[in-house]
Amino acid sequence: MSLTVLTHACRLRSLRRLQRIQSHMMSSQPEPEVLLQRVGRAGVITVNRPKVLNALNLNMIRSIYPQLKKWEAESDTDLVIIKAVGGKAFCAGGDIRAVTEAGRVGDPLAEDFFREEYILNHAIGTCKKPYVALIDGITMGGGVGLSVHGRFRVATEKTLFAMPETGIGLFPDVGGGYFLPRLQGKLGLFLALTGFRLKGRDVHRAGVATHFVDSNKMPDLERELVKCVSVEDVGEVLDSYQKQSSSGSDKPFVLEKNIADIHRLFSADSVEGIMHSLNADGSEFAVKQAETLSRMSPTSLKMTFKQLQLGGALSLKDVLIMEYRLSQACMRGHDFYEGVRAVLVDKDQSPRWSPASLDQVSDQDVDRCFDSLGPKDLVL
C-alpha cells in the first residue's frame, strides 16, 4: 500500500471516529450536560456528565459562557456558584480525545475548543461578581480552568488536583501559565512539570484552593451561600465553614519535608538543568522526580518551562493568548496525538515521543511554538 493511500485511510478512520464521538456527544445525554439555575441570589452552574467524570466539551462551554455573562450583568444576581454532580469528580478535564480526533482530520473543533475554553477561563477570571467553585472531587485540566481563576475555590477531602498534561504531550493550559508561577517558590513549576497530585486539604495548603470545607458540610454551605449579597458575605460564610472543618487537619502538608528541596532543585534555568540537579542530588525524592520527568514528553517539558517562565510576569489575558498559540502548536505536532493514544485510547502507557529526548528539542523548536498566529490569534 502506498504512503498516500495509507495516509488517506488513517484520516478516514479518524474522521469516522470523530463523527461517532460527536454523535455520542449530541445524542447520548438525555439530561442537559450543564444545569443553569437561579437559586436565591446566586446563579448556579452544575456540571452534569458524571459517567465521564464531568469531562468538559464544547457544548458545555457554549452553555456556560453566555449564562455567566448574563448573570454578571444582572442586578439581582449577586454571585455565581459552580459545582458538579456524581460525588466523584468536579471535572476531570477537557474532552481531549475528541479534540485530537478533530485535529487529525482538520476539523475546526481543534481550534474552536481551545479558543472558546480560554475565552470562558478569562470570563471567570474577570467576573465582576463573586465566583465560587466547589471542587468536591477530581479537578484536573479543564476542571482547573473552570475553578482556579474564580475569586473563591473550595476544596474538600475528596478533592484531587493535578495538571498532568506533560504526560500526554500537552502543557498545563487553561491559564496554568498564570496561576502556577504565582504559587510559593517553585511549587507551581514542580506541579506543572511532574503532574504531581494534591489531595484534600493539601490543595488549600498549596494555595490552589482558597478554602477547605468538609464534604458533608457542602449542602449546608450552599444553602448559606445563595443568600449572600456581597463578596464580604461570601468570604465570611466560607471562613466560618472552614473553621468548622477538621478532616485532614492532623496530617502535615504532603510536600512539607520536600518543599525546600523543590525550591532548590527546580530553580535551574532549563529543564536539562533541573534534571542535572535531580540526578546529582541522588535523594529518594530527587530520584523519583527524575524518573517521573523522564517519562514525560520532552517537547512538553520545555514548552511548559518557558510558559511558566513568561507567564509569571503576564496578565491572565496575555497568558491565555500565549497558551492558545501553544495549543495550536500541539495540534500541529506529534506528541499530543501520541500521548492521548498511549494514555486514553490504547492505554498501553508507553508513548513514543518525537523528539525522544530533551537534547533533541532545540530552543528554536520551542520558540516557534510561541510565535503569533496572526489573524488566528486568540482575541480577548
> Strand-residue fraction?
5-15%
Q: Which strands sit side by side, in order, in the main sheet?
A: 1-2-3-5-7-10
Number of strands: 10
User: Which class best fits the helix and strand makeup?
Assistant: alpha/beta
Total helical segments:
17
Biggest pleated-sheet summary: 6 strands, mixed
Helix content: 40-55%
Shape: globular
State the low-pLDDT regions, or none: none
- Pattern of helices and strands: HEEHEEHHEEHEEHHEHEHHHHHHHHH
Question: What is the C-alpha radius of gyration, as a whole number of Å?
Answer: 21 Å
Whole-number average pLDDT? Answer: 94
Q: Span from first to last CA?
A: 47 Å
Please provide a brief summary of the model.
The chain is α/β, with parallel strands linked by helices and 380 residues long. The N and C termini lie far apart (47 Å).
Structural account:
The chain has 380 residues and is of the alpha/beta class. Helix content is 50%, strand content 11%. The chain is built from 17 helices and ten strands. Strand 1 (34-39) and strand 2 (42-47) form a beta hairpin. Helix 1 runs antiparallel to helix 3 and helix 4 (109-125) runs antiparallel to helix 15 (316-332). It is globular and about 55 Å long. The model has no long low-confidence stretch (mean pLDDT 94).
